[in-house]
Amino acid sequence: MKIEHIAMYVNELESARDFFVKYLGGVSNDGYNNKTTGFKSYFISFDDGARLEIMNKPSMENIAKSINRTGYIHIAFSVGSVEEVDRLTRQFREDGFEVLSGPRTTGDGYYESCIVGIEGNQIEITV
Asked: What CATH code is assigned to 6-56?
Protein backbone atom coordinates (compact mmCIF):
# COMPACT_ATOMS: atom_id res chain seq x y z
CA MET A 1 0.00 0.00 0.00
CA LYS A 2 1.14 3.54 -0.66
CA ILE A 3 -0.26 7.00 -0.12
CA GLU A 4 -1.65 8.01 -3.52
CA HIS A 5 -1.57 11.75 -2.90
CA ILE A 6 -1.98 14.42 -0.26
CA ALA A 7 -4.36 17.33 -0.81
CA MET A 8 -4.58 20.81 0.63
CA TYR A 9 -6.90 23.74 0.11
CA VAL A 10 -5.23 27.07 -0.61
CA ASN A 11 -6.48 30.60 -1.19
CA GLU A 12 -4.04 31.48 -3.97
CA LEU A 13 -4.01 28.44 -6.22
CA GLU A 14 -1.52 29.64 -8.84
CA SER A 15 0.88 31.01 -6.21
CA ALA A 16 0.83 27.68 -4.40
CA ARG A 17 1.46 25.80 -7.65
CA ASP A 18 4.36 28.11 -8.49
CA PHE A 19 5.87 27.60 -5.00
CA PHE A 20 6.01 23.81 -5.33
CA VAL A 21 7.31 23.99 -8.89
CA LYS A 22 9.95 26.69 -8.28
CA TYR A 23 11.39 25.53 -4.97
CA LEU A 24 10.73 21.80 -4.80
CA GLY A 25 10.95 20.64 -8.39
CA GLY A 26 7.32 19.68 -8.78
CA VAL A 27 5.69 19.31 -12.17
CA SER A 28 2.14 20.61 -12.46
CA ASN A 29 -0.64 19.27 -14.60
CA ASP A 30 -2.79 21.70 -16.58
CA GLY A 31 -5.31 21.95 -13.78
CA TYR A 32 -8.99 21.18 -13.37
CA ASN A 33 -11.86 23.65 -13.18
CA ASN A 34 -15.42 22.64 -12.39
CA LYS A 35 -17.35 25.58 -13.78
CA THR A 36 -20.53 24.50 -11.99
CA THR A 37 -19.12 24.39 -8.46
CA GLY A 38 -16.13 26.73 -8.81
CA PHE A 39 -13.76 23.99 -7.58
CA LYS A 40 -10.26 24.24 -9.09
CA SER A 41 -7.20 22.08 -8.56
CA TYR A 42 -3.72 21.19 -9.74
CA PHE A 43 -1.82 17.96 -9.21
CA ILE A 44 1.88 18.52 -8.55
CA SER A 45 4.05 15.45 -9.23
CA PHE A 46 7.52 14.87 -7.80
CA ASP A 47 10.44 12.72 -8.99
CA ASP A 48 9.70 9.70 -6.80
CA GLY A 49 6.04 9.52 -7.85
CA ALA A 50 4.60 11.38 -4.86
CA ARG A 51 1.79 13.78 -5.73
CA LEU A 52 0.27 16.79 -4.03
CA GLU A 53 -3.17 18.09 -4.97
CA ILE A 54 -3.69 21.77 -4.30
CA MET A 55 -7.29 22.91 -4.43
CA ASN A 56 -9.48 25.98 -4.19
CA LYS A 57 -13.21 26.56 -4.10
CA PRO A 58 -15.56 29.38 -3.20
CA SER A 59 -16.47 29.86 0.46
CA MET A 60 -13.53 28.18 2.18
CA GLU A 61 -12.93 28.74 5.89
CA ASN A 62 -9.52 30.28 6.47
CA ILE A 63 -8.64 29.74 10.14
CA ALA A 64 -5.35 30.63 11.81
CA LYS A 65 -2.68 27.93 11.70
CA SER A 66 -0.75 27.86 14.93
CA ILE A 67 2.60 26.07 14.92
CA ASN A 68 1.58 23.74 17.76
CA ARG A 69 -1.74 22.29 16.66
CA THR A 70 -3.25 18.90 16.13
CA GLY A 71 -3.72 17.43 12.68
CA TYR A 72 -1.39 17.57 9.72
CA ILE A 73 1.56 19.75 10.66
CA HIS A 74 3.98 19.73 7.72
CA ILE A 75 4.96 18.18 4.43
CA ALA A 76 8.55 16.91 4.33
CA PHE A 77 10.62 16.95 1.14
CA SER A 78 13.84 14.96 0.80
CA VAL A 79 16.23 16.96 -1.35
CA GLY A 80 19.10 14.45 -1.42
CA SER A 81 21.98 16.09 0.42
CA VAL A 82 23.03 18.26 3.34
CA GLU A 83 24.29 20.84 0.84
CA GLU A 84 20.90 21.05 -0.86
CA VAL A 85 19.10 21.44 2.48
CA ASP A 86 21.46 24.31 3.27
CA ARG A 87 21.11 25.92 -0.17
CA LEU A 88 17.33 25.68 -0.27
CA THR A 89 16.99 27.00 3.28
CA ARG A 90 19.16 30.01 2.33
CA GLN A 91 16.99 30.55 -0.76
CA PHE A 92 13.78 30.45 1.28
CA ARG A 93 15.22 32.92 3.79
CA GLU A 94 16.43 35.26 1.02
CA ASP A 95 12.99 35.10 -0.60
CA GLY A 96 11.32 36.18 2.64
CA PHE A 97 10.00 32.92 4.05
CA GLU A 98 10.23 32.40 7.82
CA VAL A 99 12.72 29.69 8.80
CA LEU A 100 11.42 28.03 11.96
CA SER A 101 14.40 25.74 12.58
CA GLY A 102 17.65 24.57 11.13
CA PRO A 103 19.36 23.56 9.16
CA ARG A 104 20.30 21.18 11.92
CA THR A 105 20.57 17.54 12.89
CA THR A 106 17.62 16.60 15.06
CA GLY A 107 17.70 14.31 18.07
CA ASP A 108 16.32 11.47 15.94
CA GLY A 109 19.06 11.90 13.32
CA TYR A 110 17.41 13.93 10.55
CA TYR A 111 19.29 16.79 8.93
CA GLU A 112 16.57 19.28 8.22
CA SER A 113 15.14 22.74 8.26
CA CYS A 114 11.55 23.81 8.60
CA ILE A 115 10.00 26.89 7.03
CA VAL A 116 6.61 28.54 7.00
CA GLY A 117 5.72 28.17 3.35
CA ILE A 118 2.65 29.12 1.42
CA GLU A 119 -0.31 30.40 3.43
CA GLY A 120 1.16 29.51 6.83
CA ASN A 121 1.79 25.85 6.04
CA GLN A 122 5.01 24.31 7.28
CA ILE A 123 7.43 22.71 4.85
CA GLU A 124 10.26 20.50 6.12
CA ILE A 125 13.38 20.16 3.98
CA THR A 126 15.48 17.10 4.76
CA VAL A 127 18.22 14.99 3.22
From this structure: 3.10.180.10
